[in-house]
Design a protein that fits this description.
The structure holds 2 protein chains of 2 kinds.
Chain A lengths: L5 E6 L10 H11 L4 E7 L15 E4 L7 H14 L4 E3 L5 H15 L8 H6 L5 H8 L6 E4 L5 H8 L3 E4 L5 E4 L2 H15 L3 E4 L4 E10 L5 E12 L5 E6 L3 H14 L3 E10 L5 E7 L8 H4 L4 H10 L13 E12 H10 L1 E3 L15 E6 L10 H8 L5 E8 L15 E4 L6 H14 L4 E3 L6 H13 L9 H6 L2 H6 L5 E2 L2 E2 L3 E4 L2 H11 L3 E5 L4 E4 L2 H13 L5 E5 L3 E10 L5 E12 L5 E7 L2 H14 L3 E10 L5 E7 L7 H5 L4 H9 L13 E12 L1 H10 L1 E3 L2
Parallel strand pairs in A: 1-2, 1-4, 2-3, 16-17, 16-19, 17-18, 21-30
Antiparallel strand pairs in A: 3-15, 5-8, 6-7, 6-8, 9-10, 9-12, 10-11, 11-14, 12-13, 14-31, 18-32, 20-21, 22-25, 23-24, 23-25, 26-27, 26-29, 27-28, 28-31, 29-30
Chain B lengths: L4 E4 L3 E4 L8 E5 L4 E5 L1 H12 L1 E2 H11 L7 H14 L3 E4 L1
Antiparallel strand pairs in B: 1-5, 1-6, 2-3, 3-4
Helix pairs in contact in B: 2-3
The chains are: A alpha+beta, B alpha+beta.
Chain lengths: 711, 93
């Protein structure tokens, strides 16, 4: 039976590395709703990147902050409803659910339906209350204590023993191995969220999550369990598979029945190693960010939830175990006019969308691109591939990944084939592998996109050239001249007209650390020579950062003066004569905790670009490169904080602007003439997480055979 | 072990590109563990869906694959032992 035509409002469209569920919910609704459906995205900021992605929504509306109070939220909802009548609203953020639950009657009176738990049910499942609820209901849960006064922290932590988990009262958790770590994590979490912290017994085992939705009567209308098979350094599932374990299903159903729930929720479990006992870790009062998986697993829970909201009859569907997702990213250029329109008027209807394109030329070049993972950070190969897909004479694009969890492996819309590279990488191993790939799938140009690879590619580039594979790379001396230790603490000039290099010291001992801090004062940046950058506000932060970098294996640590201000970057391509062929500057609008760029705007900074070109010439650079800068919020001066020896992860934006750096670099590598590119339009770069399906056979092909063909 | 019949557990799912694929993937639907199967293993897995003895597996290997330099019975037995270790088969006496 066809579903009726509807317009539903969905929240939660922040698409950064820890994405909110709204876009996944919207995609699932689009995939499974039979009949006309319009989805309006409700956002708190015009830069909630997922709202701008193709197919995400038909309109975007700004909501007031929840801190404005229930009345403000209700007034705004009713104002939206007067302009674009809504049939239902599906809130997707923890802090919103109780608000919309309180407003449910008022919304219903206006014709906007919801299906949400009672506020007291939500309260019982908060992090603070859940341990007590579990104890009362006989649900297995880890030992947990709430420490409101951080002066009592060490006492409770020592009594717990180590390691233990330090959790905020809202979101965020860190594992602590000793007292110092407990104090450090607790202070960070409490500063952000307040109300003290929770100390929790760690449970070791498989992480299993269950998404479900309940009808008005509190009965489970749909349920899907998933095992997290790939978990990144932030503890987020970036690879997961639907399971069909009766014990998990029974346990989840029992808990949900005891909760007396309505609407969506997620249960997080750990199945303890050796015992198979399921410990309930958390209850989230909304759909999870991975909910899009259910649309491929035969039980589309957002559709089930929407049908429950409108009172449509439905039968519970059986999930299809084995359905798997990997977390990838989608990027696009969004019209600045649309964003401004949303900021000025509060709504934008049918924002412009750029279609995804895969362009091929029969007599074009065959390009291999590495760095195609989004597991911990978004690697730049994906942006390079996106740009090359829009280039006029590319015949074939090959992706080079390092493991079956590299999301780009499965991007048939970007690559014609993907191959697995040896890990760990050596120059000889790299040469052998590229030789084997080239024999099967000829390559004209290879583009390395990971810092650690570049020296190996430099080492073998003559042999690659003999095989007919071109590169555009600096020599090894230039590569090392731009690394942090040499650039900031060596004899390289520090003043470059429109920018400078901030004061930096290299330290190898804790005593050196203390001396550097005494001279420079706080705050400071504590950086590894290769990666990681941690801000230290005080002595405790400094030592916590030192401990963390040492634990990660960083031999040299750099202490750098902190520059407060907005972040900028310059992307450039240098030719064989070390001259800059093309460069452009962006201002970063959204940056995640890892420092990756999720939204940016091209800005005009000709002096910065010219001075950076001088520096690159001095470095004797060849090929793509990125300079990262901070603009001092007081003086407006730029400070250079890093030079990345390859294309930047946001380089796909260059194709949107008409500059297409990866194509330009490809042309230079092939000794072809290059025409100076021209910027077009005023658009904003936006990136959002997007879960994509992975077939088990594709996973097996790359895992066991080392290749996956998409053509 | 010699006369026993072996059958894939109910929680085991076999996935392939198509019905006539020569290779495939075995999924333990309780744990999401996945195992990639080459042609020989896939052939045996399909037999184990309905159940077979080691003898029957060995005979089928001989009939479908070149087995001059190998002992198909030993291979079949080893295969079944491996599946038992990872809890993918039930032994039915």
């Amino acid at each position: 039976m066809k579903s009726p035509s509807l317009r539903v409002a969905v929240t939660g469209f922040d698409g950064l590395d820890n994405p909110h569920p709204g876009w996944s919910v919207a995609r699932a609704l689009r995939a499974g709703w039979e009949g006309p459906l319009e989805i309006d995205a409700l956002v708190y900021d015009a830069n909630e990147t997922a709202a701008w992605m193709p197919g995400a929504c038909d309109a975007i509306h700004l909501l007031p902050s929840l801190r404005s109070g229930d009345r403000a939220v209700l007034d705004r909802m009713l104002a939206i409803h007067r302009e674009r009548p809504l049939d239902a609203v599906m809130p997707c953020l923890d802090l919103e659910v109780p608000v919309f639950a309180r407003l449910a009657d008022a919304l219903q009176a206006a014709g906007i339906r919801t299906l949400l738990p009672r506020p007291d049910r939500v309260w019982e499942t908060t992090k603070l209350r859940l341990p007590k609820w579990c104890h009362r209901e006989g649900v297995l849960a880890p030992r947990t204590i709430h420490v409101l006064d951080l002066n009592d922290l060490e006492l409770h932590a020592d009594q717990f023993g180590y390691p233990l988990v330090v959790k905020s009262t809202v979101t965020g958790a860190k594992t602590a191995h000793d007292r110092d770590e407990v104090v450090h994590h607790a202070e960070c979490l409490n500063n952000r969220w307040g109300d003290g912290v929770l100390l929790q017994q760690p449970i070791f085992g498989d992480e299993i999550v269950v998404a479900a939705t309940c009808n008005e009567q509190g009965r489970v209308a749909g349920l899907i369990p998933m095992r997290k098979t790939g978990v990144n350094a932030k503890g987020k599932a970036v690879f997961g598979t639907v399971i069909d374990d009766p014990l998990v299903v029974r346990t989840a159903e029992k808990i949900i029945a005891r909760l007396g729930w309505r609407g969506p929720l997620e249960l997080e479990f750990i199945r303890q190693c050796g015992t198979s006992s399921l410990f309930l870790i958390e209850v989230n009062c909304r759909f999870p960010s991975w909910i899009g998986l259910c649309a491929w697993a035969g039980a589309n829970l957002p559709v089930v939830a929407l049908k429950s909201i409108i009172g449509a009859k439905q039968t519970r569907e059986r999930v299809r175990p084995g359905a798997t997702f990997v977390r990838d990213v989608l990027e696009m250029a969004v019209s600045l006019d649309d964003i401004r329109g949303l900021q000025r008027t509060g709504s934008v209807v049918r924002p412009a969308r750029a279609p995804r394109r895969k362009r091929r030329a029969e007599d074009g070049a065959r390009i291999a691109v590495s760095g195609i993972s989004t597991f911990d950070v978004v690697n730049s190969g994906l942006g390079v591939a996106r740009a090359l897909n829009r280039a006029p004479d590319v015949r074939r694009l090959i992706g080079l990944g390092y493991g079956p969890f590299d999301s780009g492996i499965y991007r048939g819309d970007l690559f014609d084939a993907t191959y697995r590279m040896p890990n760990p990488l050596t120059a000889d191993g790299l040469l052998d592998r590229l030789s084997a790939i080239n024999a099967e799938s000829p390559i004209d140009v290879v583009v390395p996109c990971l810092d650690g690879e570049v020296p190996h590619y430099i080492a073998i580039r003559d042999q690659l050239a003999n095989m007919g594979i071109r590169t555009l790379l600096p020599d090894l001396k230039a590569f090392h001249r731009r690394d942090k230790a040499n650039l900031f603490t060596g004899s390289f000039p520090k003043e470059w007209n429109s920018f400078s290099l901030p004061e930096t010291r290299k330290v190898r001992t804790e005593r050196g650390l203390e001396r550097a801090a005494a001279v420079m004062g706080y705050p400071l940046m504590v950086k590894g020579a290769i990666s990681y950058a941690i801000k230290a506000e005080d002595h405790a932060d400094l030592h916590a950062a030192w401990t963390e970098l040492k634990r990660k294996g960083e031999r040299d640590v750099l202490i750098q003066r902190y520059v407060p201000g907005e972040r900028y970057a310059v992307a450039a391509v240098c030719g064989p004569d070390h001259g800059t062929l093309c460069s452009f500057t962006i201002k970063k609008l959204r940056v995640c905790e890892r420092g990756s760029t999720w939204s940016a705007l091209q800005v005009t900074e000709p002096q910065l670009e010219a001075d950076f070109a001088d520096l690159l010439k001095r470095l004797r650079w060849i090929g793509p490169v990125e300079g990262e800068f901070i603009r001092d919020q007081v003086t407006d001066d730029f400070s250079l904080i890093e030079i990345n020896p390859r294309s930047t992860a946001w380089i796909g934006y260059s194709a949107d602007l008409g500059l297409n750096h990866p194509y330009l670099a490809m042309q230079v590598a092939l000794d072809r003439p290059v025409a100076p590119p021209v910027t077009r339009g005023r658009t904003v770069f936006m990136r959002a997480c997007e879960d994509i399906p992975v077939s088990p056979t594709a996973f097996a092909a790359i895992a066991s055979k080392g290749r996956l063909r998409h053509d | 072990m010699n006369d026993s019949r072996y059958v894939l557990k109910k929680r085991v799912s076999l996935e392939a590109e198509s019905e006539d694929s020569q290779e495939g993937v075995v999924i333990d639907t309780h744990s999401a563990s996945m195992f990639s199967c080459n042609g020989t293993a896939w052939h045996l897995m399909k037999l184990l869906r309905t159940g077979a003895t080691v003898e029957q597996l060995a005979l089928s290997l001989s009939a479908h694959f070149a087995v001059e330099d190998v002992d198909p019975r030993a291979d079949a037995l080893e295969f079944v032992r491996t599946l038992s270790t990872v809890e993918l088969v039930d032994e039915i006496a």
